[in-house]
Amino acid sequence: MSDKREHILFLTGKLAEKQLRQILEAMRPDFDYTVHQLGLTVAALMTADMIRRRLKDTFGADRILVPGRCRGDLDALSQALGVPVQRGPDELKDLPAFFGHEQVKPDLSRYDIRIFAEITDAPRMSVAEILSQARWYRDHGADVIDVGCLPDTAFPHLEETFQALKAEGFVTSIDSLDPDDLLRGGKAGADFMLSLHQDTLWIAEEVDTVPVLIPQPPTDLTTLDAAIEGMERLGRPYILDPILEPIHFGLTASIVRYHEVRRRYPEAEMLMGVGNLTELTHADTVGINTLLLGICSELRIRHILATQVSGHACRAVPEADLARRILFYAREHNMLPKHVHPGLMCLHDPKPFPYNFAEVQELAAMIRDPSYRIQITREGIHIFNRDGLHSATDPFELFPKLGVENDGGHAFYLGVELARAQIAWQLGKRYAQDEPLDWGVAVETSEDGTVDPHAYKPAGTTLKRK
């Protein structure tokens, strides 16, 4: 076996070279390295084509590491150079973590919580509208489409709705406290029904649909025990729902009920209707979902009912989908749900300010061109070029100092970037010039939500010489 240490070639720009060397020296890595400055000022502007043209020597490296924002086809570049080329982190400050955890790529494909996503106004919607909503739910993580009924509201197309959903391969449930609705839904082919209690168990004898059993009233678990006994006599599967109550209307007691039901029935399937908290609390739902699914993960509650009725709960299903994957991974690896995936941190980042003000001042002093760079630190927003450094917490204070009054395009670009920087500074989010802020699961993104590093992105006007 060879004891030869790996040799890594780090490609960088003029401004980042000093800091890169300092970080590598402080790391005392278990590999040999060469730092090569490629002859451009800003490392983030590096591209695969530029590397192919400018790199004349690979210095005997076993691997080449380029900045995380380097664009282009690195597979083709690797073949051309005869050395594997890999992207590093976007920020130099993240380089130690990159090497400490580069092999840890959490597998978030697994989960054990099934999401029932309710279409609450189904009686007032057309079949086509119901199908459209169901497709969106499925695309965003729902496993079961829950067709909700409304009190004292006719649902003449109930049967047609289930036929259409089943034709497209959806797993379905019927959701009502009206026995007639439940019976119709079961006969129409619903896979589950929400909800039965001890007085409506007769419906389970009429259809093969798997019922969700609830206590009636919610505080009396003896009624749930009776319903369970009835289903056991029938020899049929069922799911238990002790009913989650809203804050100040029994929340704590209801969580205790879930714990008690799990104690009494350690192997039973259970469901939690998380919508009673996400919908009825004016707070960002991503944190509520994560906490409730954490309880589900601990108690092995493998079904939840999610709703997206209120405007503030419009991302409840994708939030629950990501939360269940992160929590499953954390539980399986006996770890806290930290540093698994950043998607649930929509408003804040764990390390929002990678640079301090002294480092920004040092960087600004090295700039020799008129292009503006923007950074944020704990102190505020900083914009600088060869003509000087300006800092503020309000972008309006900066505009008079930028000299772009007669350049509409440039002024517009800087306005957008400074607005992003201000939002990031106020919230404590990571800001990177020329990139949108990362809002995690709270915002719809294309593909997996990441920037395509193979695609070339035109530089903003601030990065072009006049």
What does this structure look like?
- 37% of the residues lie in helices and 15% in strands.
- Strand 1, helix 1 (14-27) and strand 2 (32-37) form a beta-alpha-beta unit.
- It has 3 domains: 7-101, Rossmann fold; 114-340, TIM Barrel (Alpha-Beta Barrel); 357-461, no CATH class.
- The N and C termini lie far apart (57 Å).
- Helix 2 (48-54) runs parallel beside helix 3 (74-81) and helix 5 (127-139) crosses helix 6 (158-167).
- The protein has helices at 14-27, 48-54, 74-81, 95-101, 127-139, 158-167, 179-187, 202-206, 221-234, 251-264, 275-278, 285-299, 316-332, 357-366, 395-398, 408-427; strands at residues 7-12, 32-37, 63-66, 85-87, 114-119, 144-148, 172-175, 192-196, 210-213, 239-240, 271-273, 303-306, 373-377, 380-385, 388-392.
- The model is unreliable at 455-466 (pLDDT under 50).
- The protein is an alpha/beta fold and 466 residues long.
- The protein contains 16 helices and 15 strands.
- It has an 8-stranded parallel sheet. Strands 2-1-3-4 form a 4-stranded parallel sheet.
- The radius of gyration is 28 Å and the shape is elongated.
- InterPro entries: Dihydropteroate_synth-like_sf, DUF6513, Pterin-binding_dom.
- This is Pterin-binding domain-containing protein.
- It holds the Pfam family DUF6513.
- Residues 96-328 form the Pterin-binding domain.
